[in-house]
Amino acid sequence: PDLTARIDTSAEQISDALHDNDYFRDEMLEEHGYTLEQFEESPYDLAHDIAKADLVGDAGGGVVYPLKINRENYATIGGKDSTRLQGRDYYEEAKADINKADYADEADYDDAVQELSYEMQNNDDDGLYAQVYNALRETDAYQNEEAIGDVMEALGDSFNYGEVDIDSLDEAIRAHITDNYDDSTGELISAGEISSQTLKNLGYEGVIDNTVNSKFGSGRQYGQSMAGVESGTQHIITFPGGEHNLRSTTAAFDPS
Fold it and tell me: Among candidates 251, 225, 236, which has minimal Cα distance to 43?
């Protein structure tokens, strides 16, 4: 699962770079023996082939081992079991603290509740808002304060009501955090990688993504669909440090 995710992430990066930089495109095509016509015919498939060649090389025909994965501490994106981050419901707490009888007008009462709930949220240094914000700030997007702010704004009142759907967090990151580069290599870092880094920083050991068809397969709105990605396709990514969750189904127990 890790290698598949790395290839997909690299393919996204290469695809973006091929479209954005003609010089890089020409150099990359020449290096890997492709023509401009091949690129224009199927740009994403070509980017995926380049990514696979870079990461797998000549080992593509090697042994594939079936694995069992302990997914207990994995975040889930999409589907009926999508993960929801839970926090304090400041709105309900504010309602409990404010006497409705003190307000003759319903709108004034609602305004007072909203104002107090936002004050509670802003004063909670360990709350859900702070957790998500800090998780984003600890990714490779840390210098992109404006984009991080856009993500937080997109999630809006979810923080106030004490629940953030991982689906919404992933969508907001992919929509707003789009131009990030590795400090040491200068390589483009995809929004999908920033999403994974954020989830890892929130304490998850991996992610189960049920939305890959809408991102890469036949369900995507733009660009070339990735072969083999269909409705029901699921990607499981294990983050660095979570390798202990992987077990070979054919491995024998060694008592030594």
Answer: 225
